[in-house]
Amino acid sequence: MRIEMLPERCIGLLRGTIFVCLFCLQLKVEAKTDFELQVDNFTCSSQDTEYHILKHYRCGMNKNPKRRSWHMEFKLQQPLAEHEVYMSIVLPRRKPVPDFVLLNLTTDGCQLLSNRNQVPLLSLGRNIMERFSNYPKQCPFQGDLIYYIRGFRLDLSLLPAVSMETPVHIELGYQVKPQGLRWLQGNLAARVQRISEKKRPKKG
C-alpha cells in the first residue's frame, strides 16, 4: 500500500515514529563523542625461555600526554604457523564488588589473521588493527621480519555508545597451541573518560 493511501492519522503516526528514531540515533552519535579512551601504561613480557620462539620484542607508549598511543613489535626466530591469540578486557570495581569481565577468550590466531573469526568484537578489532600494523592476512608469521603495531589509539566512536567513566585493564598476546606458553603478552592500563571542553571539537 502506498503512503498516500494511508489515513491521515496513520501518516502522522508514521512521521512521528521516524522523527523519534532519527532523534535517538543523533543522541547515540553525540554520546560516542563525549568519551575517549586514555591509555595510562602499556608493557609486555614473554614466557619464552625454553622454546626460543622470539628473537626480539618491545612495547611502549608515545610521549605525547595529550594524545597517547601504544606500540608493540616482535621478530621471530623462524616462521610460525599455528598459534593462539588471547584477550581479556576487565573493568575493575571497588571491593567487595567483583570486577566486571567484558571479554575473556582464546581463539585460533590464523583464523583471526584471515578475519574468519566469528566473534564480532575480535573481528572489529582485526579490521581496526589493519590501519596500524603490518600483520599478514594469513599464516604463517615469517621469521626474521619485524611485525609491529604502531601509534594505536582506539576511537570509541567505532564502538557502541559508551556512557560511563571507568578504568579498563586489557591483557592480550600470543601463545603456543599445545602448551599454552605465552610467548608474547601485553598489559594495557587505561580509562574511559569524558572528553574535556578543551579537546571537544568546536561546532561550526
UniProtKB/TrEMBL annotation:
User: Highest taxon of the source?
Assistant: Eukaryota
Pfam families associated with the record: DUF1091
Which controlled-vocabulary keywords does the entry list? Signal
InterPro entries membership: DUF1091
- Which range is the signal sequence, renumbered to this chain? 1-31
Indicate what this protein is called per its UniProt record: Uncharacterized protein
This chain's source organism reads: Drosophila madeirensis (Fruit fly)
